[in-house]
Structure formats: structure tokens, C-alpha cells
Amino acid sequence: MTALDDHIRQVTEFVATMRRQGRPVRQFVLPPGANDLRAGLPIQLGAGANPGIILRSETFVELGNPDAGSCGFALWTEKPSLLEDGRVTLIGPDIAESPLASLPFGQVVMAGGAHLIGDDQVSLGQAQVVADQIEGYMVRSNSRNIWSRVSKQVGARGFSFDTLARALMFLIKSAVPRVESVEIAFVTSSKGDVLTLNEIAESAQAIGRAALKEHWKARGYDLDCDLHCGSCDDKTVCDDLRKVLATRLRKDKEAVGDDAQ
Amino acid sequence: MEAIDYNMGTAAHDLTTLERKDKALARYKKERDWFAFLLEAAEMMDTPEGKLQVKLLNILLDSKEKVISSVMNDTPFVAAYFCTAPEILNAMNLPWFMIMETPFLAASAPYLLDDLRGAEEMGLGTDLCSAIRLPMYYIESGLMPVPSAVVGLLSPCDGTTMLQQVLQHNPAWKNVPLFAPDPPYTSDERAIRYFANELRTMVSFLEEKTGRKMDMHRLREVCEESNRTYKLWQEYNELRRAVPCPHGWEIGGAQAFAVSQCFVAGDPRCTDWFEQLLECGEIKVKEGRGANEYCPEKIRILWFDIMPYGWVFEFMPWLEQEWGAILVMDMFSNFPYTLIDTSSEETMFHDLAKRNLMDVPMIRQARGTAENFSSDIARMVKDYKIDCVIWPGHMGHKDGAATAGIMRETCRGLGVPFLHIGLDLFDKRYTSVDEVKDKVSEFFRGMGLG
Terminus of chain B with fewer CB atoms < 10 Å: N or C? Predict the structure, then answer.
């Protein structure tokens, strides 16, 4: 499995930089067990937990509107020791502190497991798509960033980043049993901070795409096409044809020019 | 002198420039009149959805009128595509039409089958995508207005490139200046920057060949308006997650694609249309009403391609009436778009490049690597609570046919039934509508959906 250890270190460094620059950084550690994560949650969790949609008028807080700044990605490592299982880092205001606000939003999920395999990358990616599994939380159907809404109903019940982190960790550990440790970082401090985080995301995505290619290759499918003109046995024939066509086109144009005269 | 049959696609090589212009104009007006007829019908519907149709048709007709006026007055206009940054054309005040306009927008027009037959009589192979074959036929038979300049398309398939070759060899078109932005194969930052530069070159080309100038302030205004329409589109798409889905195949999805990209991109009338669409959707969601009041929703479908426009009225209502099967999402209704950052000229071109290289339908799936075939399906199935995925297997989408296995495996992993049919979205003679209905019925029954 492709490791993204360096990117995990970059996220750690990013958090340290934010702290040095005086951003409000809060960290807390959630329990490791899936059942412990679920216990005491003020919301329902699992398929169908959020059966409806959250309309604009029902929104308590909006996260990651592109105008405000948005970024979301997942990293994984075969060295669980790089992570502190259950640790949540929040840079910026919490949900409950920002009623009716539209906050910039960065979310990094980091998963570690000594026995993670290639397929787990796809499962991890899909586990990010929470769909209807978190009550009162709707991630809008946008492919690159995370743009989401927290409903007024669960906002009134104290939905916070603690709640969201518990829910995400539970869903990830349930979907990918080989994951031994999960850490999550949320950024809501400013658009600039989210964009800085996004630089790490872009370089990680390139590695992710390569791993995905391997995943499909192992199943007999090529996402990529290795064939190109330079590798084709008939290249000479095509080149000759092009020359013939170009000559014909030129002669046609010359003929039109002659007629015009 | 022998009278010219303006309605039929007879060979046009012997026509004078003026005769050719008249012939193309006659056909273009005929298409306009078809939509004007639909507008009259829509104006009789006193419902929010009826008003929506009226607004859409007015936008469409205005765009057609501008092209007609340009042809008649010999002022510049352009032939281009939905995926060649139409915001740029709007900012340069250049009327334009989509070269594949008829198969995409007017495929319900009563003359479509005649045109397909005409293409066959001309000798165009029936294994060539009908969406490509039709414009080739219109060009060769003089039924398409000859523009001042062409913005060509080199992706997502070989057919589009061939279309460019046809117009380069056609006597009436071969001296029309053509520029085709070169789409890179990859989808990384380097590719976006490369394509952004191609779009800048496209602007220089258009300035030189049409005499119209790009005003960056105007481009910013257009992109900001375009962003407003796209924001509303995404908001609307969230409504389609509701069970029951507020709209099916008739309202919303495909129209949203057309209004945002196919007539005039970044225009307040488009934003207004989306506001109306959102209002219609929100009312229905709040009231818990589904797409078809007479046929309760039983099966939520992802139709992963263009809708079968050539025979849409014979098939889609049947799906709802016979099976309660509602088209909740399709390839063209999906929203993978990110908004354009208008803070500088550089960011605008960067994001226009991204949108037209990586977000727009078909180009997104088939231009480069194939991962979007899988990831988009996975996302849509989860977000929209999809019960089954139908890959129609349009005969022209050979690129997609190569990835049917990836789509099938993805659906298997998600536990969602997958159907690959094999048909022509515009020509019902390829696989008859009855045969398609039979296959779909068998699939629903076999998978325990109906």
C-alpha cells in the first residue's frame, strides 16, 4: 500500500505552525473503541440516520462553502505509531460557537494500520462519503471539497466537532476493520489557513490516484491508457497518411486561390 | 433555375455562397420555429414548472435569434461547444451555437430521423456516433450556418476530432478559421495550467478573427453570474436527494446543464431560471411530493449517460408509469463543478480551464483516465439513494464501453444492481424502444426491484 507518511508529518507541522502563529488550537482525545465512540452521542448514526435533506432555512451552520474556503482529504499510513488514535485537532471556532455562520472548513482524516492493503484506500475514500449516516449532518454532493450543513435540530442538541469526529471515526473503523488508529484535524480559522492545508491535499491526491490505478490494475482494469502514437506499430502508415492529407488540403486551397484569381 | 429544397439535406457542394446561406438559415429558422411552437404550448401551463419551461425556451430562442441575426447581417458569430468555456464567448459579446446542438437540444424535433437517414444516404457509417454523424451531415449538406470562426473540440473521443476534419475539408467551411484548445490527458495542476493557456490562446484567436475584444472586467462579471447559477444548481441538486425525488427526467437535471452551458453562460436570465427551479423543487420537497403525482416513486435510477433524447418521450414516461422508476440522477445532471475564483485574470482562466477540462459531462469521464466512471457512480449512488444504475451503452460511447467492467465492479461493491443495455440515444432503429423496455423490465424483475 502506498504510504503518505510524509504528508501526515506535513499536517503535524501545519498544526504546529498554526499554533505558533497564534491560532486557537484545541486538541482532545476520543476513546478508541467503536462502541465507546458511539456512546453518549446526541445524534443517530448509521444508514438512514439522516433520512431527509437539510434545506437552507434549516441550517444551523454551513461548513466549507467555496466562498469561505473548503478542503477535505484522507491520508493513510502503515505505521499506526505516527498517529495518536482518537486525537482530534480543531483550529478555529467550534460549530456550537458559530450559530448561523458559514465557516471555512478543512478536514483531514488520517488512518493508520499495520496491515492496511490497497483495497482499503478505496474503502477509506468511500467512508468519507457519509451520505445519510450522520443525523443532522449533510455533506453536499460535490466531488472535490467538503461542503456541508449542520441542521438547527441537532445544533440545538449540541452537535459539535467532537460529535462529528466521533461519528467519522466510528464510520471509518466500522468500514475498514484493518484501521488501528484514526486522527482527525478540522480547520475553521480562515480561508487562508484552509488554502494552506489544501496544498498538502493536492500533492496527496496525486499519490492517491496512483494507488487507485494499482487497485484497478489488480482487478484487470486499466484506468490509464498506455497506448500512444509513439508506441504503435502503424505509426509510419499514419504519418504517411497525414502527409497525403496535408498535401491534398494544400492543393485544394491552392485550387480555390487560383479560381478566385 | 432549379428550386432548392431547403429542408432536405441534399449535397451542397454545388450551391453558391448565397444559396448555401439561405439553405442553412431556412433550416436554422425551422429549428427555432420548433422551439417557438414548444414555447406556445408551455405558455398554456399555469404551473411553476410550466413557467420554468417558458423561461428556458425564451433563453434558447434568444440565443437562436442572435445567431440568425448574425447570419443575416454578416456580423461575427461562432460555432463552438458547451465544453469550450462559453463564458468567454459571452464576455466577448459573441453569439454562438453548439455544433452538436441538434442531437443535444433538438433531438425531439420531428425531422431527426429523416436527418439520420440523410446521413446514411450520404455514406456516413452507422457505427459512427449519431451525435457526431448528424452535425457532419448538416455541414456536408449545407444545413448548418457557416460561422465566422470555429472553436473545435479534440476530446473526449476520436469522433469529435473527425468532425473537425470534416469541416476542414468541406468547401464552405474549410476557410473558416478554426482553433481547437488542446486538452491534456492528465488531470493535475500542470494540466489545468496548460489548458488555461490554451483558453488564453483561444481568446487571442477569437479577437483576431472576429474583431471582438475581451474585456477582463466583463469576463469577471460573466464568471460571477455563472457562479451564481452554479451555486443554485448545486442547491437544487441537494433537493434531488429527497425521497421521493421532487423531479424526474422532465424537470431539472438535463435542463440545468443546458441553461448553464449551452445557450449563454453567465447571464442573469439563467440565474433567474435556476431560482425558479429551486423554488419549484423546495415547494415539492416541503410538501413531500414526488416527481410524478400519479405514479409513486418505487425505484430510484441513476442513468449514467445523456438521456435518450431521440426517443425520450416514448421511454421515460413509460419508466414512471409502468414501474414507478424515477430518474433521480444522470451524467449531465450531476454536479462535480467547483466555482470560478474571480479574484484575478489568472484565477479566472485557471478555473475556467478546470471546469472545461475536468468537470463538464462526458469530458470528465472520457477525456483522460477512467477513475471518474467509478468514483462518480459511487458518490451518486450513496448521496442520491440510488436503487440501480443503468449504463445505456450508447453506440457512440465506445470509450465508456471499455469501462463497463469498472462500472459493474463498482456497483457490485456498492451492492447496487447494474444494467448495460447497448443502444443509440438518438436513433431508435438501433435498438428498438420495445426491446429497451423489455431489457429494463427483465432487469427490474430479476433484481427484485419491481
Answer: N
CB contact under 8 A, B238 and A138: yes
Per-residue pLDDT of A23-55, as tens digits, reads 999 999 999 888 899 888 999 999 889 888 898
Domains of chain B: 17-210 (3.40.50.11890)
The complex scores an ipTM of: 0.81
Q: Are B80 and B237 in contact (CB under 8 A)?
A: no
The 10s digit of each residue's pLDDT in B121-138 is 998 888 899 999 999 999
CATH of the domain spanning A5-217, picked from 3.30.1650.10, 3.30.2350.10, 3.40.50.300, 3.90.190.20: 3.30.1650.10
Q: Kindly list the distances between the CA atom of residue B4 and the CA atoms of B12, B19, B24, B216, B393, in Å, as whole numbers in the listed order.
A: 10, 8, 11, 45, 39
Which SS3 state, helix, strand or coil, does residue A130 take?
A: coil
- Identify whether the C-beta of residue B202 lies closer than 8 Å to the C-beta of residue B83: no
Q: Which of B334, B336, B406 is the closest to A216 by Cβ?
A: B406
Nearest-neighbour CA in chain A from B288: distance (Å): 10
DSSP B64-123: HHHHHHHHHHT---EEE-TTS-HHHHHHTT--EEETTHHHHHSTTSTTHHHHHHHHHHTT
Nearest to A223 among B174, B234, B370 (CB): B370
Whether residue A56 and residue B338 make contact (CB cut-off 8 A), yes or no, is: no
